[in-house]
Amino acid sequence: MIKIISDSTCDLSKDLLEKYGVEILPLHVIMGDQDFEDGRSVTPDEIYRWSDENKQTPKTAAVSVEEAEEKFAKFIGDGNEIVCFAISESMSSTANAMRLAAQRLHAEDRITVIDSANLSTGIGLLVIEAARMAQDGMSVREIRQTIEQLKPRVRASFVVDTLQFLHRGGRCSGVAALVGSTLRLHPRISVEKGAMIPGKKYRGRISRVIMDYVRDMEEELMHAKPDRVFITHSGCEQEDIDAVRAYLQGLNHFEEILVTRAGSVISSHCGPGTLGVLFISEK
Question: Does residue 166 surpass a pLDDT of 70?
Answer without folding.
Answer: no
